[in-house]
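STRUCTURE:
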């Protein structure tokens, strides 16, 4: 033990005791813990015209579960995906929609896509000096460091005009896939002993295609794989202004900070295990089920093991079936419904239909098992149940699951950053009730 280790442990214990509050004080002062009302609804903190997330209806003052809806600028995300058919490039189209509040024409989309592709370049020696020199296993930290280093190359960073903010947003949307993939390649080489592959993106490919190409040098990818990744990115683009990372982006934007600082703050919020990373938990849970259930596709055997998970007897002993339940969605999560279909197709193409069926059975069995243990209403699968499985089928390493989420969500963060700096001139500043007791000095 180092000289001051025990000192820090003792002081940490003191901090813990000082940070505890009598729970009755929250009721006394009507404090909205987590900025949520008692029924779980978020406290209204602002207005947005970017998206809408609906998971329940209020009828005669009562909250009624309903099928979930995710709306991008007035359009159902399910309709956007359905209308695209098997055409590629929906990520770019929806990014345009979220940023500019209109579906682009073919000409507008082509111009936007060309501009994004031109922005998929990094300053001279950036990869060597920033990514390769300071690599590590925490890729969210790597991505944040990359974004902050990009700020060092911006000689007009004090320009806070909407045009400058948009220029910065477009640059970060375009380069975030590079930060994620190159960061992984550096970690895989220096820490894990793998080969080092730094592949430049191609101008004639979509974002999804470039990600697969940079991750799999020389191995190629199928049209189905590119389409599935494209749709998965679309489903992660945006999810309202109240989720932790997007609200963080708006808070920092309201302070007048630059785009780089806003995106770094959002990244660090998403890094938190209470926000991002749930699809990784699902993946670990699935591995655990396969390791301990001889026939995981037998509904009875799977249900018995899920009961043990809920009873905190196995897996991480937290009693959670990861990938089930959501803070807003009740009867269904539209993202999970789209991903279920995509996962089934990709699993069949990869000879993994049995694994897909296990995930499907978890979705069907878990709600009743959870309700037996807890007093809960409607429980549905959320986006994380199938997203991790899809990443696995695509050969995307587990270390990149949350970074891939960030690659997509950067679009939503940027849309909210633009909306905040344009629509509001007030810094976000909620109140805290002080329960400090005055102490007279001797």
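SEQUENCE:
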């Amino acid at each position: 033990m180092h000289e001051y280790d025990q000192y820090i442990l003792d002081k940490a214990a003191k901090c813990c005791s000082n940070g505890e509050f009598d729970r009755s004080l929250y009721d006394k002062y009507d404090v909205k813990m987590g900025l949520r009302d008692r029924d779980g609804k978020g406290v209204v903190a602002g207005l947005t015209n970017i998206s809408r997330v609906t998971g329940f209806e209020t009828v005669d003052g009562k909250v009624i579960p309903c099928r979930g809806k995710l709306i991008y600028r007035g359009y159902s995300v399910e309709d956007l995906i359905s209308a695209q058919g098997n055409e590629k490039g929906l990520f770019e189209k929806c990014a345009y929609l979220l940023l500019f509040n209109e579906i682009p024409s073919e000409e507008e989309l082509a111009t936007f896509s060309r501009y994004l592709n031109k922005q998929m370049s990094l300053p001279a020696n950036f990869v060597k000096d920033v990514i390769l020199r300071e690599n590590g296993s925490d890729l969210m930290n790597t991505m944040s460091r990359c974004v902050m280093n990009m700020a060092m190359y911006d000689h007009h960073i004090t320009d806070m005009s909407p045009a400058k903010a948009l220029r910065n947003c477009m640059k970060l949307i375009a380069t975030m896939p590079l930060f994620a993939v190159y960061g992984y390649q550096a970690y895989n080489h220096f820490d894990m002993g793998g080969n080092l592959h730094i592949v430049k993106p191609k101008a004639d490919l979509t974002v999804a295609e470039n990600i697969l190409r940079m991750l799999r040098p020389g191995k190629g990818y199928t049209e189905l794989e590119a389409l599935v990744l494209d749709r998965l990115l679309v489903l992660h683009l945006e999810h309202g202004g109240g989720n932790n990372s997007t609200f963080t982006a708006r808070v920092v934007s309201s302070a007048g900070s630059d785009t780089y600082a806003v995106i770094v703050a959002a990244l660090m919020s998403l890094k938190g295990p209470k926000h991002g990373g749930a699809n990784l938990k699902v993946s670990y849970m699935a591995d655990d089920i396969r390791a301990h259930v001889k026939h995981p596709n037998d509904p009875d055997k799977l249900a018995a093991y899920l009961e043990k998970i809920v009873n905190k007897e196995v897996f991480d002993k937290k009693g959670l079936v990861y990938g089930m339940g959501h803070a807003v969605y009740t009867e269904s999560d539209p993202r999970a419904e789209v991903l279920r279909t995509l996962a089934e197709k990709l699993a069949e193409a990869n000879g993994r239909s049995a694994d897909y069926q296990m995930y499907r059975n978890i979705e069907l069995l878990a709600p009743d098992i959870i309700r037996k243990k807890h007093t809960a209403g409607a429980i549905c699968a959320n986006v994380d149940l199938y997203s991790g499985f899809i990443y696995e089928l695509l050969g995307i390493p587990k270390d990149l699951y949350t970074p891939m989420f960030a690659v997509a969500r950067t679009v939503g963060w940027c849309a909210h950053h633009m909306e905040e700096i344009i629509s509001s001139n007030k810094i976000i500043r909620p109140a805290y009730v002080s329960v400090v007791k005055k102490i007279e000095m001797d």
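REMARK: The chain has 18 helices and three strands.
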